[in-house]
Amino acid sequence: MLYPFTFRPICRERVWGGRRLAELFNKNLPSGRPIGETWEISDRPGAVSEITNGPLAGRDLRWLMENHAEDLLGVAPPSNGRFPLLVKLIDAHEDLSIQVHPPAEVAAHLGGEPKAEAWHIIHAESDARIHVGLKEKATREKFEACLKSGNIAECVHSVRPRAGDALHLPSGRLHALGGGIVLIEVQQNSDTTYRVFDWNRMGLDGQPRELHIEQALTSIDFDDHVPALSPPGLIADTPGEFRMESRVLTPGESRACHGLVIIGIAKGAARLDDLPLAAGEFALVPACVREAVLHATTQTTLILAEPA
Fold first, then answer.
1. Which residues contact 32 (CB under 8 A, 6 or more apart)?
2. Topology, domain 242-307
3. Cα dihedral sign for 181, 187, 191, 197?
4. Is the distance from CB of 21 to CB of 50 less than 8 angstroms?
5. Three-state secondary structure call for residue 151
6. Please, what sign has the CA dihedral across residues 264, 266, 269, 270?
7. Most C-beta atoms within 10 A of its C-beta, which of 61, 253, 269, 285?
8. Strand (E) or helix (H) holding 75
9. For residues 114 and 100, what is the distance between their CA atoms, to the nearest angstrom?
């Protein structure tokens, strides 16, 4: 019988990463290295989440998918035989590259995987920005000209986020997370990213990071102008991808969870039945669990995500 699972985070070093995940959430980060992401729930090749609680502790999400996929997923389809979602915490100490993920209709042609994602902002410095979509009246021709001249900011729209804001990033949407932001990311189980501009910096190996100009230009939605941040609440709900929402529970308030759902604590603390969850921690409730009750022990902001 399956039960709600917690997993061991997988640390990912990134040239733009920092140390804030240790400061905010007491994550056990490798010393002296810029950690940009912890993969909290992952079924990627070479990066599979290990169960940390209950009688199946030490097994991993790949084992669950290979041996208990129906109980775990219910009616949700897998992604090429793997768990369909990837959940991360992201610490952007510096700006990420301006990038895009390919839509399904072009991903196979480019040799990649489609990838939609959504963000819930946990922390943002007062001067932090997110680059997202295109400015009003920007065209592909103008974008290519700005790219060649190094003035890409003339074409890319930007917004100033605050804690609690959210942003849905459908595949094809140009974006770059700015420095000074920490967030929860839920995405399709894909690792295909096409960088179009990387601020002329060197990678961790001291060499210029690879750009993917032609693939990016093929993938960008050039009709995506001036997208806006979303307030707390429903963040994404796209058939064939995933649903994601944020909720606030007052101290002592409870919420019953039915079926397959991922729970993330952005702020505060809660108990999922007898399982304690602190800020920055996540749980996966399998589809076969008839009911799990989340009980807030303090004022708690939580993220709920499930395949759609």
1. none
2. Jelly Rolls (2.60.120)
3. negative
4. no
5. coil
6. negative
7. 285
8. none
9. 10
- Determine whether domain 7-234 maps to CATH 2.60.120.10: yes
Distance, in Å, from the CA atom of 111 to the CA atom of 8, rounded to the nearest integer, reads 31
- Residue type for position 180: G
DSSP string covering 169-222, please? Answer: E-TT--EEEPSSEEEEEEEES----EEEE-TT-B-TTSSBPP--HHHHHHH--T
As a whole number, mean pLDDT of residues 196-202 equals 91
Domain with CATH 2.60.120.10 in the chain: 7-234, 242-307
> Which positions are annotated as active-site residues?
195
CA–chain centroid gap for 111, Å, is: 22
Rounded to the nearest 5°, which phi and psi values hold at 294? -95, 125
Range in 64-68, 83-87, 154-158, 207-211 the model is least confident about: 207-211
Q: Is the pLDDT of residue 93 over 90?
A: yes
Interval 27-70: pLDDT, tens: 999 999 999 999 999 999 999 999 999 999 999 999 999 999 99
Nearest CA among 155, 166, 80 for reference residue 117: 166
* Helices H / strands E in the chain, number of each: 5, 24
Tell me, letter by letter, the H, E, C secondary structure of 82-105: ECCEEEEEEEECCCCCEEECCCHH
pTM of the shown model: 0.96
Classified as helix, coil or strand, 77 is coil
Average pLDDT over residues 169-178: 98
Take residue 294 and report the two structure tokens written for it: 């989340």
- Of residues 304, 300, 292, the one with CA closest to residue 250: 300
